[in-house]
Amino acid sequence: MPLQDARITGLDLLRGLVIFMAVFEHYTGYLNYWYIDFFTREHALWDSFYLSHKAMAGHLLPMDHITAQVSAWLIPWVSQIYLALAAFNLSRRDQASFRPQLKSKLVLFVSIIAVLYVEGLVIAPNFGEAISFYPVMLWMCLLALFSLVYGWFGIRGMLVLTVLGLLLDQFGVQTLLGHIDSWMKLHVHPDYELDARLDLFMASGCFGFLYGWCWHQRPQWRDRLNRLVLTLSVVALAIYLRLGETSSVELNDIYANEHELALDMTGRAGIWGMEFLVIGIILWLHQRNIRLCWRPLNWIGMYSLTVFIFHKSIFVHLWGPLLLWWTARQGTILPNSFGLIMLLCCASVLLIHAFQRSGIICHLMGMHQDRDWQRLYGK
């Protein structure tokens, strides 16, 4: 296996942890908003079977303090680090071997966005949320942009793009995105949300790509590269700890301050410092033949998109209704506790694992018929 093709197990572990935390955040958020977004579907039973829940209709359901503490420490950089890791992997090829793959990569990213919109139509409580633009969609757009720039202009083009990414605030991008969000709310749907801010995410992706390019294309630099990244990460974290504000989470709404830390350069320095300190430590250990691996998290990391695509539907159509039914039988309201959310996250991953391992996806897509199709009808 070529050196640049070898998977780094520690990064799979980290990606798995990041995706698990994303599932944790989303499940907490679904419980926060269940009585606003989804309980209306049971309106006919409010005065009978769901009487214990009726008083909560239209209200947010607060999380417990343990969940809030965990979220405050992990959520600000979870969204950023997944993009950085994806960009790191995107740079495995040199420009000459990358360009022939450019079309297929662009088709892949567009297809993922299309699947995410289909998922939104299946699970969203209204049309506005179904067509909203979320961070994972922005990540695919940015990865497509990185692919175009790298395929046509090489690493120099990515260096220029990185500088532009750091200067987006100066170009009025934040104001423009705010106008787009307001226009969509006014003319399309009041619940539309432009939740993916280019100015908050682009630099993380660019840094991840540059780190990956140096790692894959210049293996002789790896030790010095890691020392440089770790040093800069510590400096960035020190600046944030000295000058920045502590991240916080509202008990009633896990999304309220989700991107608050990234709104100024000091907060972003803290995010970049944290994410690249963790990545740098993993790569430093990898260089010393210390392979970080815990199979459950590594599986999530390797099949990250599979987990991401299915976890929301499982909650909206299985766990949420089951919890509502069970608590109605007990005469109580929904819980929103750390232990419950962890249990549901683990159960969802196990369900997705069983679904993926069963091979049913391949059969549903007809992939087992591909060879016969080509033999009988050609491509």
Automatic annotation (TrEMBL):
Keywords: Membrane, Transmembrane, Transmembrane helix. The chain crosses the membrane at residues 12-36, 66-85, 106-127, 133-153, 160-180, 200-216, 228-245, 265-285, 297-318, 338-355. This is Acyltransferase 3 domain-containing protein.
